[in-house]
Design brief:
The structure holds 2 protein chains of 2 kinds. By secondary structure, chain A is mostly helical. Chain A has helices spanning about 1-5, 10-30, 40-50, 55-70, 75-90, 90-95, 100-125, 135-160. Chain A has a single domain (about 5-25, about 35-160), classed as Orthogonal Bundle (Arp2/3 complex 21 kDa subunit ARPC3). Chain A is built from 8 helices and no strands. By secondary structure, chain B is α+β, with helices and mostly antiparallel strands. Chain B folds into 2 domains: about 5-65, no CATH class; about 115-385, no CATH class. Helix content of chain B is about 25%, strand content about 20%. Chain B has helices at about 5-25, 30-65, 65-105, 315-320, 380-385, and strands at about 115-125, 130-135, 145-150, 155-160, 165-170, 175-185, 245-250, 280-285, 290-300, 305-310, 325-330, 340-350, 360-365, 370-375. Chain B has a 6-stranded antiparallel beta barrel. A 6-stranded antiparallel barrel of chain B has the order 6-9-10-13-12-11. Chain B starts with 6 loop residues before the first helix and ends with a helix. Classes of the chains: A mainly alpha, B alpha+beta. Chains A and B meet through α2, α4 and α5 of A and α1 and α2 of B.
C-alpha cells in the first residue's frame, strides 16, 4: 500500500484533477483556430518524454481514464489513445538514453500526434463515425504545437508525477 | 512495480485493460456509471477553482484583445436597436391604422347607406379653410355633397371631387351648415337619459329609417345605388376593408339569388318637416320619451364648437340641456341623410330679454386626428347643394 501511495498513480491523479479542471473550463472556452488545446495530453507527452515509454503509457492511461470519466466518452477510449501518445513520447529513452532537446521536442510532438490522432480512430472502432477527415490535419497540428509550447513548463512536474528522478551522473573510478 | 514488467508487457496490459473497459462501458455497466458520477463530483471543485482563477485573466485578455471588436459590435448593436425601434413604431402605426379601419368598417348608420372608406392624405393648404383631402374621388363614385363620417360621428361633406381625390369640408368650417336635430329626454322624464340614449341608427325610439326619394334609383335625395347591396371592389374583402372599399353598413342578409339585401322602408320626406319647428315627440313602447328639436348647425372654424340654432328658440330654450345628442335631421332640402351623429350640446347660454339662446355643440369626431373616413354614398338634393 505504501508502495502504491508513493508511486506515480496518486501523483498523476492529483495532477490530472487540476489539469482536467483547467481543460474543462479554460481550454474548452477558448479554442485556438477552432481547435481546443489538450492540456492532459501535453502533460502525458511531457511525462513520457521526461521518463520512459512505460511510464508515459501509464501517465496516458491514468489521465485518459480521468478524461473519459469527465467527458462521457467510453471508458478506456481516451486512456488507450493517451497511453499510446505517452508510450510514443517516451520511446525516445529506448532510442537515445541521453537525448538532445530537439529530440525530446520531436518525440513529444510525435506522441501528441499519436495520442490525439488515435482518438477518432478508436471512436470509429467504438461506432462513432464522422470524425476522420481533413480537419484532423488542422487538429493534429494545433494540438501538437500546443503540446510543444507546454512541454517546457510541464516537463519537471510531469517527470515528478511519473515517478522518475533526475539521473545523477557519477564519475566512475578507473 | 513497473520495473518488474517489461516494456512490452506494460503496453499490452494497458491496452487490454482499455479494451476491456471500453467493452464494459459500451454495454452500460452500472459500476462504471457510478464511477463516472463519483468522478464528476470529485472534479467539480477543481473546475470551479479553475474557473474562478481563470476568469480575471480571461477578462484581462479580452480587454486587451477584443476591445476594438467590442466597440464595433456595440456600434452595430446600437444601429440594430435603432432599426428595431423604427420597425416597432412602424408596426404599432400599422396596427393602429388597421384598428381604425376595422372600427370604420363596423360603422353603424341609421339606414342602409353604403359607404366608401377613404384615407385622409392632406390638410388644407391655407389658414382659412377647414378641409382635408382624401384619396378617393370620382373614380370611387364620390359626388359633391356626400357626407363624410368616422365612427365617432360626422366629419364633413365632400366639397370638391377630382378624379382620384376629394376635398372634404369639415363641420367646423364656417361654410358648413346642415340640418340638425337635438335628441333629449322630455322634461317630464326623470333621470340622465341623454348619456344612455342609444347611438343613432340603433333603435332610437322614433328615429326609424327616414329616406327621401326612391332608394336605388339615383334620384336626388336618394341613396346612391341600391341600398342594401353588398358589393366590394374586386380583390378586396369586407372582412379586411381597405380605403376605397365599398361596404354597406347595417345590411340585412342578402336575398338569396339576388345579391341584394332587403330594401329599407322608405318614409316620405314630409315625415320630418324641413326646418320644422314643432318638437317631434315620440314615445316608443316601453322606452323613454325622447324629444326632438330640429334646426341647423354651422361651423365656427376649427377649435371652436359648432353653433346650433333652432327655428323655435323659445320652445327649445326651455327643454334643451347640456349633453343632448345632435344628429342630422335629414329631409328633402337637407344635405345629409337623417340620424347621422354630429356631436353633443356642450353649452346652452340663454340671453336675457328672451333672445335666441346660444347653443354650442362639440363634434363627436376627432377632426384633428383624422386618418380614415367613410364617405356616405348619399346624394343630396341639388337644391340643397345650391346647384
Amino acid at each position: 500500500m505504501r508502495h502504491f501511495v508513493q508511486g506515480p498513480i496518486p501523483r498523476l491523479v492529483a495532477f490530472g484533477l487540476i489539469l482536467l479542471g483547467v481543460q474543462n473550463t479554460v481550454c474548452a472556452a477558448h479554442p485556438l483556430f477552432g481547435v481546443r488545446i489538450q492540456l492532459p495530453l501535453a502533460f502525458v507527452v511531457a511525462a513520457g518524454a521526461a521518463s520512459t515509454a512505460e511510464r508515459g503509457a501509464l501517465a496516458g492511461f491514468v489521465l485518459g481514464m480521468m478524461y473519459d470519466l469527465s467527458s462521457g466518452q467510453p471508458l478506456g477510449q481516451t486512456a488507450l489513445a493517451y497511453g499510446l501518445g505517452g508510450f510514443v513520447a517516451g520511446y525516445l529513452s529506448v532510442v537515445r538514453p541521453v537525448p538532445r532537446w530537439w529530440m525530446i521536442a520531436g518525440f513529444a510532438a510525435l506522441g501528441a500526434v499519436a495520442g490525439e490522432g488515435s482518438v477518432p480512430v478508436l471512436m470509429l472502432v467504438t461506432g462513432q463515425e464522422g470524425w476522420l477527415g481533413l480537419r484532423m490535419v488542422k487538429v493534429l497540428v494545433v494540438v501538437a504545437a500546443g503540446c510543444l509550447a507546454l512541454l517546457a513548463p510541464l516537463f519537471t512536474p510531469a517527470r515528478w508525477a511519473a515517478g522518475l528522478r533526475r539521473p545523477k551522473w557519477r564519475v566512475m573510478p578507473e | 512495480m513497473l520495473s518488474s514488467f517489461s516494456r512490452r508487457r506494460i503496453a499490452i496490459l494497458l491496452a487490454l485493460t482499455c479494451l476491456l473497459l471500453i467493452t464494459l462501458d459500451r454495454n452500460d455497466n452500472a459500476q462504471i456509471s457510478k464511477v463516472r458520477r463519483a468522478f464528476a463530483v470529485l472534479l467539480h471543485p477543481f473546475e470551479t477553482a479553475a474557473r474562478v482563477v481563470a476568469r480575471p485573466v480571461e477578462r484581462l485578455w479580452d480587454g486587451v484583445v477584443h476591445a476594438d471588436d467590442l466597440r464595433r459590435q456595440n456600434a452595430e448593436l446600437r444601429d440594430q436597436i435603432g432599426y428595431q425601434r423604427g420597425a416597432t413604431v412602424e408596426a404599432v402605426a400599422a396596427e393602429l391604422r388597421w384598428q381604425e379601419l376595422e372600427r370604420l368598417s363596423g360603422l353603424s348608420l341609421p339606414n342602409k347607406y353604403r359607404v366608401r372608406l377613404a384615407e385622409v392624405i392632406g390638410d388644407a393648404p391655407t389658414n382659412f379653410q377647414n378641409t382635408v383631402e382624401i384619396n378617393l374621388g370620382a373614380n370611387g363614385g364620390l359626388q359633391p355633397g356626400m357626407m363624410v363620417m368616422t365612427v365617432e360621428g360626422l366629419v364633413g361633406r365632400i366639397r370638391t371631387v377630382k378624379e382620384t381625390t376629394s376635398i372634404v369640408l369639415l363641420v367646423t368650417d364656417p361654410d358648413f351648415a346642415v340640418g340638425a336635430q337635438a335628441l333629449m329626454r322630455s322634461a317630464t322624464q326623470p333621470g340622465p337619459a341623454l348619456d344612455t340614449l342609444p347611438p343613432p341608427g340603433t333603435g332610437v325610439p322614433g328615429s326609424g329609417p327616414v329616406g327621401t326619394g326612391t332608394p336605388g334609383t339615383g334620384t336626388p335625395g336618394s341613396g346612391a345605388g341600391a341600398p342594401g347591396t353588398i358589393t366590394s371592389t374586386p380583390g378586396t374583402s369586407l372582412d379586411t376593408p381597405s380605403p376605397g372599399t365599398l361596404v354597406t353598413m347595417n345590411s340585412d342578409p342578402p336575398v338569396p339569388g339576388s345579391g341584394v339585401a332587403a330594401v329599407p322602408p322608405v318614409v316620405p320626406a314630409t315625415a320630418v318637416p324641413p326646418g320644422g319647428t314643432a318638437p317631434l315627440t315620440t314615445d316608443a313602447p316601453g322606452g323613454p320619451e325622447v324629444v326632438r328639436e330640429t334646426g341647423s348647425i354651422r361651423g365656427q372654424t376649427l377649435g371652436k364648437p359648432l353653433r346650433l340654432s333652432f327655428i323655435d328658440d323659445t320652445a327649445t330654450s326651455r327643454i334643451l340641456r347640456v349633453g343632448a345628442l345632435v344628429q342630422t335631421s335629414g329631409g328633402a332640402s337637407s344635405l345629409a341623410p337623417p340620424n347621422l351623429l354630429i356631436g353633443t350640446v356642450s353649452r346652452v347660454q340663454r340671453e336675457t330679454g328672451g333672445g335666441p339662446p346660444i347653443i354650442e355643440v362639440t363634434p363627436s369626431a376627432k377632426l384633428t386626428q383624422l386618418r380614415f373616413v367613410a364617405v356616405v354614398l348619399y346624394v343630396p338634393n341639388p337644391a340643397a347643394l345650391g346647384t
